[in-house]
Each structure stands twice: as C-alpha cells, then as structure tokens.
Amino acid sequence: MKLSIIGSGYVGTTIAACFAEVGHDVVNVDIDEDVVATLNSGESPIHEPGLDDLIEEHAGDRLRATTDYEAVLDTDATFLALSTPSTDDGHIDLSIMEAAAESLGATLAEKDDYHLVVTKSTVVPTTTEEVIAPVLEEASGKRVGEGFDVGMNPEFLREGSAVEDFLDPDKVVLGSQTDRAAETLRAVFDPLVEQASDAAVVETGIREAEMIKYANNAFLAAKISLVNDLANICKEYDVDSSEVLDAIGLDSRIGSEFLGAGVGWGGSCFPKDVAAIVAAARDVGYEPAMLEAAVAVNDRQPVRMLDILRDHVDPSGARVAVLGLAFKPGTDDVRNSRAIPLIDALLDAGADVVGYDPVATENFREKFPDIDYADSAGAALDGADAALVVTDWDEFAALYDEFDAMNEPVVVDGRSIVTRRDDIVYESLV
Ligand SMILES: NC(=O)c1ccc[n+]([C@@H]2O[C@H](COP(=O)([O-])OP(=O)(O)OC[C@H]3O[C@@H](n4cnc5c(N)ncnc54)[C@H](O)[C@@H]3O)[C@@H](O)[C@H]2O)c1
Ligand SMILES: O=c1ccn([C@@H]2O[C@H](COP(=O)(O)OP(=O)(O)O[C@H]3O[C@H](CO)[C@@H](O)[C@H](O)[C@H]3O)[C@@H](O)[C@H]2O)c(=O)[nH]1
Known about the structure:
The chain has helices spanning 10-21, 33-40, 51-58, 95-108, 127-140, 162-167, 179-195, 206-236, 241-248, 270-283, 289-310, 339-348, 361-367, 377-381, 394-397; strands spanning 2-6, 25-29, 63-66, 77-80, 115-119, 143-144, 147-152, 171-176, 200-204, 319-323, 352-356, 372-373, 386-389, 410-413, 425-428. By secondary structure, it is α/β, with parallel strands linked by helices.
C-alpha cells in the first residue's frame, strides 16, 4: 500500500521506516526541512537502535520525505504522528494536530479517490471524531464517510526499543467506525502482523482506541509509583526492596516487568499523558484519585533523592556529578527527564553541577546551557563531592575504580544500578 505519515519525530520516523520494511511505499511529511533532508540522505534524525539501518536500506526506494503535503495525494492512507503536548494546566494541547489536519484537509480537497486518515498520536477520547474530523471536513469540503474516513491506531512503542516494539508488538489496536476504514487499517497492518511473533489484533471503536492508549500508559505509570511507594517503606524499615519486588513479581497476576523502583518516571509520554487524562477526567466531573496519587509519588522521588544527599553532603558549593541526562537508557530524549527537577533543585541549593550522558548531552545542553558537561562518567566524577545516578545506562553499572577520583565519595543511586563498595558512602534511593 501507499502510506503517508505526517510528522517525522520519534514515532513518525520509526513507523515510516518500519512500514517500508514490511513492504509499503511510504512518504514522511514534516515541516522541518532539516529532518526531511536528513531522512532523504538515508540517515535517521533521531537516535534509536536499528533505525539507521532501516532508513539507510529503504530511503530513496520505499521511503522518502518531503515538506510538501501534496505527497499525500498519491497515497491510500495518512497517519497523523504529531506531538500532543500539555498546556500549563495539564490539558492536551491539540494546536499542532489541528494545524496539520487543516493542511491535510486542504490537500485532500484535490483527491478524487477514497482516503483514510488515521490518528496515530495519543489523543483524549472523542478527539478524532469531534476535533480532527471537523477540521478535515471544513478544509476539504468533504464529509467523513463520504470520500474519506477517520480511524485511530494508538502507538505503544518505547523509546530505546522503538523499532523492535513496532515490528514485534504485543498488540495492534485498530479503531474505526466504518467497514471500509476497518478493512483499510487491516490491510495496512496485515504484513506486519504476519511477520510478528505473537501480535494480538484488537478491532474496536475510535474513542475506545483513544482510551486504550491512556489506560495503558496510566496503568504502567501508576504501577511504577506503587512500586516506589512500597520501596520507600522498605527503605525506612531497612528491608531490601529488590528482594521484595523480585518476589512479588513471581505472582503472575503482578508480573515481573515495570517493577523498577527509583527516581521515578519521566519521558515524553507518561507525565503528559497522565496529566492529560487526569485533566480530561476532571472536565467530565470525575476525580481520578489513583492517578493523582501516582503523580504525587512520582514528584516526590527526586525530592527524596536530594534529602538523602543532604544527609551526607551540603549541596551549597559542592560539586555534584549527575550521571544520566536522558529520561531512560537507549535514547537521546531528555523530555521530562528526572535529571531536570534534580538539577533545578541542585542549582537552587547553590551546587556546582557537572552532567554526563553517553548520548543525550547535546539535547540537555539546550535546556541547561550553563552547567558543566563531562565527556565520560570518570571525568564527571573526577573531583566531585557527590554523584547522583539518574539514568540506568549499562555503563554506570560497570563503574568502580572511577569513584576513587571523587573527593570523599558519596553516591546516591536513583536506579540501584551501581556496584556497591564498602569503602564509599553509597545509598540507593529506595
Ligand atoms: N515518543 C514516543 O515514544 C511515543 C510513543 C507512542 C506514542 N507517542 C505519541 O505520538 C505522538 C508524536 O510523538 P513524537 O514523540 O513522535 O513527537 P515529536 O515531537 O518527536 O515529532 C513531531 C514531528 O511533527 C513535526 N510537525 C510539527 N508540526 C507539523 C505540521 N504541521 N506538519 C507536519 N509535521 C509537523 C515536527 O517537526 C516533528 O518532527 C504524540 O502524541 C505522542 O504522545 C509517542
Ligand atoms: O520499572 C520501571 C520502568 C520504567 N521506569 C521509568 O519510566 C519512564 C518510561 O519508561 P518506558 O516506559 O520504558 O519508556 P517510554 O519510551 O516513555 O514508553 C512509554 O511511553 C510510550 C509513549 O506513550 C508508550 O508507547 C510505551 O508503551 C510506554 O512504555 C522512564 O523514565 C523510566 O526510567 C521506571 O522508573 N521503572
């Protein structure tokens, strides 16, 4: 099939390259000329394992990029993979989606054949039918169900394993309201589902598909917060939380994944998606108490980490190494990284901060241009009074002798990853 993807960020680029890999002809449309040029030169605009290889293989053949929306005219279906950030009060901000839908609608006015427009972005229930569809109708002069359809296909890939997650998913959720939209969505995903190891296909309504995405993320975020609550209790009683969590994970009703206690969840999705569904729930008169508690626990973890640091070192005037700036390992994405509230608080307390990350330094520098950055973990630790471990990069697990270069080593480990040494002050956060 011929597919167009509007937006070529983490999701749009990954799904475009993967759709090309399973045999579709794909065009990415993005307003960012640099992103388009990078893709057309056969390179990935983002750091994601396996993505460079796919783009190198398919660019110029089954995969191309353009800034020109006219490219959608020669395709059967368009996926909207645009950012859906938060407003200041946590509500979903749909302005980017609406602008793209308007450009797409104006282009679809020129198309004679049937077209399917699929929301790939994470959007609160009713958005596709009550916000996107009317914009498309107004701009195209066509009606949904006559000439074009809308659908919803939430994305569950994780950064750092995006290619693998997309090509071999646990589930594919296809939301539609008409038989033709359902058939078209099935045809898009059939080649992917056939080569995946065990992907369930969930065919459902559009607003159900929208809500499945929020329910999925909210459940996972709340699971981590519950685990952090339990691990905090463990720490107060001097109980080894890792033994407790490993044991409860053996209960198949709980499961062993997403039991990683520590400095909490960040990233481009959990914080904004939990905030958006909480705000949406309140809009319809429901107080989502569990989700509010999940956010409160998550906000408290960096504060606890600094309290533990203060038990050993006064941050004022101290040189503090922050190991890990990306919101998780395997990515250069620093959106809502836990390093952000930690460094803000360290700077407020008068600390001299040096940051290190294997791949995310340049992205982080845009947010914090004035702190020091080191080229290696060892260089960051050299002369530091304290170290905070924020991201669970594998290379931090291998650190050992490097701590000798610190003044009087104090290590607060927010991911319980560092190898303990009896001769230095080591505290796990939980
Ligand atoms: N990042 C993830 O891991 C992930 C996973 C699942 C779902 N999601 C959801 O997918 C959506 C996209 O997220 P992302 O992280 O890929 O966003 P992103 O910010 O990385 O990418 C968005 C892209 O859209 C482009 N763009 C902006 N306005 C445009 C326009 N009018 N026309 C064409 N292109 C335009 C931008 O230049 C950018 O390249 C969000 O709703 C997010 O919640 C993200
Ligand atoms: O046991 C754990 C697992 C994760 N995290 C943290 O949780 C955050 C999110 O991690 P992860 O879910 O692995 O990364 P994302 O790429 O943000 O993926 C989430 O958000 C995406 C965007 O919606 C969804 O598509 C994915 O299914 C969902 O896992 C990170 O800060 C992790 O450090 C923990 O603290 N403990």
